[in-house]
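Handout, page 2. Input:
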Amino acid sequence: MADNWYYAQGQQRVGPMSVDELARRLPGIGGAETLVYGPGMQNWSRAGDVPALAQAANAGYPVAPAGGPPAVGGGGFGGGGAYGAGRPQSHEIDIEIFGSEMQYCVCTLDGGETVIAEPGGMMFMTGGIEMSTVFGDPNKDRSGFLDKIKTAGKRLLTGENMFVTTFTNNRGGREKVAFAAPYPGKILSIKLSDIGGELICQKDSFLCAAMGTQIGIAFQKKMGVGLFGGEGFIMQRLTGDGFVAVHAGGTVLERDLAPGEILKIDTGCIVAFLPSVQYDIQFVGGFKNTLFGGEGLFFATLTGPGRVWLQSLPIDRLAHSLTPYLPTNEGGRSGLFNN
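Output:
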């Protein structure tokens, strides 16, 4: 276990290595702001906050004073830190989740605060909320037409609408806007700053987020994942430091994978995972398993370290279960709808 140390470089994890080797590399790879993971740790952390690495991490690098603003270019994934220079700070919205199997979330906004959401998800809003439909990135008020086209194109690649809706409290005081889950399941409220500033999720799981959250795309680099991984080459990348709400079907399993730990999963059951987790596919194997096992030809494999969120009821599995009870092509009905 003494050699099971890793550090994050862009969207990749580098390691394993000894703590001495990691300490030797730190001054050249980001110092105190480098995200690291090692024995006894529950999640990725700044090297400057890890006692075994703090001295080496802070060598030659300024340390942010207590209570002050974060150091420029703070840690995180995606080459820019958890939420560093050049990225807007997310609004400080509050999210409450209500219900059991058909949940909805209520976002409470102070004056001037905004929440962004997928079109069609709004359940209700109070009188002081103003709704607006935005083409392109809602975080860039003055972006040019080409920038808007580029952002809208990325959303189309993930299967989402080209437009985003924003809900702003223009009255002052505290106003509320609620969003409903599209099918039975759970809503997860995640603060991105608590998980390193970035989350990779399936294409249709995003529900809403604080203004300032960037909604991008994450390409799967391996050809096999793109062809057989269920979610294709492209997933959604959420980056920022505020709250986001994502939806999962059925019941949710949240699990922290240790370095090198592998979890084999039905390809449709992935909801989200941290960028430190490696996503791949594996052939089921065996003639009888392939033809009669009912699990398809491939498993998804997630390899730690990092946190993963899984769902027990993917939307395609729900749709397949309901198919026998839907109207037939001849206009008749079967199953539960049969008179």
